[in-house]
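thought: fold this chain, then report.
action: predict
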Amino acid sequence: MNRATLLLPVVVLAIAAVLSSIFIVDEREKALVLQFGQIKEIREEPGLYFKLPLIQEVVRYDDRILGLDVEPLEVTPLDDRRLVVDAFARYRIADLQRFRQAVGASGVALAENRIDTILRAQTREVLGSVTSSEILSEDRAALATQIRDASRNEANSLGVEIIDVRLKRTDLPEQNLDATFARMRAEREREAADEVARGNEAAQRVRAQADRTKVELVSDAQRQAEIIRGEADARRNAVFAEAYGADPEFFDFYRSLAAYRAGILGGNSTMVMAPNSEFFDYLKSPEKR
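observation:
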């Protein structure tokens, strides 16, 4: 057996040992160097690092912002209207050593399970202190902020930073939808009936005002008409009186002609009077008057 044959396994083992002692951390991750399960080094900056082969191992963790969908849960606000809430959170591993000590080898799976428990508890507590109207209004963003702040303290013990919490969906449970819709429909119908009643009342007031205005206008018009008619009759009588005073004989003649015209028209009732009646004065000859 020659020398080259003996050196080849040694070289291979040396290369394998060197390669196994080198590890790279990129900008998207953090790494722990463990020796028999104990933390020896924490590598958070990207670069090339070394470890003891076979004795030490490298455990990598994601350094990016991670997402977690919280399982839907039922909450009971102050007005006892149960709601189904669906939320999600954004978090990142802030303290790698504390994270490893808290979750051990289970890693992210166990951490997310604990974060989910924390978020569910804080969601029930925060949403249980307000009414359902506040939850369904624009205030839900402020409520989500309260849930995030309350969850941060507990999450810090896991070495995790809760960056954001959002409420995706806040709905009524399926078994309550029909009853709620019926109640909402009844409330809307009651409001509609109130509006119709108020409209009818306003219409009655408008009609009454219009009728009163009509009566006042007609009464005023009739009063003015009577005044004008009276003034016209007075002027007519004044003209007649003036004409009669100017020539009484002619006035008597004119009045007699008007009486003849009215009495001789066809269709009038028969008149019976003496031939020497004053009615015939202007029909007689001058000698017989």
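thought: worth noting. Helices lie at 3-20, 96-103, 108-127, 132-136, 140-156, 174-246, 248-264.
final: tokens above.
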